[in-house]
Known about the structure:
alpha/beta
Amino acid sequence: MLGxxxxxxxxxxxxxxxxxxxxxxAEARVRRSGPRRIIDVHAxxxxxxxxxxxxxxxxxxxxxxxxxxxxxxxxxIGERLAAMDGQGVDMQVLSINPxxxxxxxxxxxxxxxxxxxxxxETVARHPDRFVGLASVAxxxxxxxxxxxxHAVRRLGLRGALVGGxxxxxxxxxxxxxxxxxxxxxxxxxIFIHPQGVPELAxxxxxxxxxxxxxxxxxxxxxxxxxxxFEGVLDRxxxxxxxxxxxxxxxxxYAARSDAGVKTFPGTYTTPLKKAPTAYLKDLxxxxxxxxxxxxxxxxxxxxxxxIMMGTDYPYPWTDRAVxxxxxxxxxxxxxxxxxxxxxxxxxxxxx
Length: 351
C-alpha cells in the first residue's frame, strides 16, 4: 500500500536535496533553539490510485501552481525527507486536497479508504517525520463522521482536511452538524483548505493566477465568516479548526464584522455569544502570510499562540518558513517556539 502515496515535486522536479535552494540549506545549518521539533502543518501529498477511481490520471496540472505528481517509492520518500532536512523541518503534517466531493457514497467511501489507509501506512513507516490528516466525504456528513472516527481511533490520524465549501454547500450548513459534532467529540484538528471560488471564475480569469492568489484566501474568509455568523462555533465550542493561508483576508479586516452587526443589525439573524472578532482567537492559523509584517499583524489580531508554521509544500511559495518566523519582530522566543512546533505538537498530540 505504501506505493499509493505520491509525493510531489514542483514543475516536475524531484523533491530531493539537490532541489533545495541554497538559502534553505543555510537555514538548516543554523543551530535550532526553542521548539523540541519544527513541524510543518501544511504539506500536501496524493494517492494516484484514489484519483484513478474518479477518472483522473497522473501527472496532472489543474492550475499553473499545481506540481507534477511523481510515482511514490521509499526512494522518493527519502528525497522528501532530504528536502525537509534542507529546510530545517523535522516533521510534516500530510494532507490531501479534496477532489471527491461530487462522488456518490459508494465511490466516495472507496476513495477515502484508499487515501486514509495509504496515509496511515506512510506515517507508520516514518512516525518521527510524518503525521497525517484524514480525507472525509463531507458531501455525505454521516459517512464523513464515520470516516473521521475510523481514521482517528483506528488509523491514528490526527484529524482531517476539508475544503472551504462542499460542492457549493457552506461548511456552516446544518446538514454538516454530524461531522462537526464528531470532530469536537474526538478532539480532532480540522484543517480548512480552500479550493477557490468557481462562481467568480470569470472575474478571476486573466493574468496573475487570481483564481488561486485571490480566490483561495477569499474562500477561506467566506468559510470562517459563515462558521462564526451561523453559530457553528457556539454550537461546538471545543472544535479545533486550523485555517490555511493565515485565515485568508478575515484577520486583516475582522473589525468590519463587528461594525457590520451594529451598522446593519437587520442582517444579524443568528445571535452570537460574543463579538464576531472574539471567535478569531478560538481558531488556529498557519503562517503562510509571506512577510514579517504580515505575520506580526496576524499575531496581533489572533494571538501569537494560535499560529503554526506552514509551507504549503511542495508548492513553491516559500523555502524560508522557519526563517520567516525567526525574523519577525515583536515575537518573544516563546512565541516563536510555539509557532515553529510546540503548538502543533500540543494540538496534534505529538509526543
